[in-house]
Amino acid sequence: MRLVCLDDDDPGRHLEVLWNLELGARAVVPEAHGLGETTQVDAPAHFGAYLHALKWSAVSAADATRFQAPFRAGIKLMAHQLTPLMKALELPRANLFIADDVGLGKTIEAGLVLQELLLRQQAKFVLVVAPASVCLQWQGEMQRRFGLRFEVMTRQFVAWRRQERGFGVSPWSTHSRFIVSHALLRRPGYRDPLIAHLGDRARKGLLILDEAHVAAPASAGRYAVDTDITRTIRDLAPRFDNRLFLSATPHNGHSNSFSALLEILDPVRFTRGVPVEGKKDLAPVMVRRLKRDLRKLGFESFPRRMLVELALRHEGGAGGGVWSVSESAYDADVGTIGAVRVAALGPGRATEIELSEKLARYTELCAPASGKDRLAFVMLQQRLLSSPEAFARTLTAHMQGVEKRGGPVAAPQQGKLPGVADRRDAAPAVEEDPETHGLSDEALAEESDAEVRRASETLSPNDEARALLTDLRALAERARRAPDAKAIAFLAWLRENVCAAVPSAPDRRRLRGRLLLGGEGRGAREGAEATARAGRDLDREGAAGGRRGAERGAAAEGPGGRGGGARGARRAAGCGAQEAVTVPLVDRVPGGVLRGEAGPAG
To answer: What class does CATH assign to 46-297?
Structure first.
């Protein structure tokens, strides 16, 4: 028997049942049986509450200016976060691109739109596509802020659902709100069942795409080329009635790629290959605010963004010379550049410059003009800009590939699938799941080194190139453990700007500043570790300088030299205190952010 839903919650939905197998099934014909007998009348207070609830739901569902979501969310509401909600409700379909600046709360804004659509019964099946590193963050924010439970789609979740409901049940049909990572959605084993579950078009569907710029076609060449994630999102997006794209960097500088991304969002307004004509075309579907714009309007108080550039300069030969640094500050709000200050860092070798010159010559001799084989040289250049430690590791992988020796290959980790009874104890295993958190820095570095080795196996360097490769290896090994000029300049800036206000010695333990170093992958962590080593080296050198000065001052004591010796000891001790900078070794936190504490400078 085929049934049709008449309720306002889901009118028109079809349902097929086996009438003979339904428990207590009976047909009520109003003409013959009526609508039943009234045994009692509701209390006036109870009926009044029901009537007011119906009126409020009817008004709020029909009026786009009356919001319910802000009053049903555990958030500190900011004025600017209501703009995306208002714009989404004004559209026939909530096809909106939220491109606010970093830190303005795009997740909260998307949650408000989601909650409002759910309350207005305009959204039922919700899919959040986000980077693997923030999937659990999305789940926690939706649960804590809006009381919405999302399931994170992983291999473990699929195994649980199959154990509970059978192998033939699609995991996408077991819940109405899911979070899936970009990498996992590209796999046919997850994408194809989702497409089969959605059909041609999911009624009351909502797609939230976090970091939407990754779905823009690649624009390295003259024409934008669709990537795997581009094709996946392009296939999924038309199956949802409502679409929310989130990104702080929506435009990658190529108009063709940008128009292709907007076409995925709203194919009626935008067409791939047709340039977007300024704010007039973007105003109906995009919300873009920067912190400086909100600060000028006086809505919220956000810290000013100051960009400080430390430009290093080396004068002298490669084997010696003097390093100097010029500091300039750029005010992002005003757009002005401050005065440039130049300071000397002291003598030192230009090891990185020498590595860069030798690498350029080696690239000229061996690198192919184009193709995948050029990947090894691109990676070497990137690692050299990161840190000598990262360059030495990548150079080792490159030499292993050139010598056809390969390298260590990590076996893929197969997670144990727990039973239904073990799910309560599975929390630690979920946090280690790469499908939930993404691959670790070490795993990503191993994959990158393996790609470098594979790309290097086809190379056949001549004698000059092999000699350059040997010189690069020797220089890299010498520089990987020594403090480089970038670390020394950064520590000098810390001494002047971060640690200058630290009070006297008795209070240092109570006032320890915190330093955040942002970067991606193992290269950023290795660079921060090199900075920490440089701080410890300077600490030891400063302490040793203080001891040597004290010894020289004590040796100068004698007839007519006692005062000079005391002044020399004080001056040497002060020099040692000024040079001592303690930067403990940094440790890794989720999201690739490096955390450490900058200790006091004398």
So the answer is: alpha beta
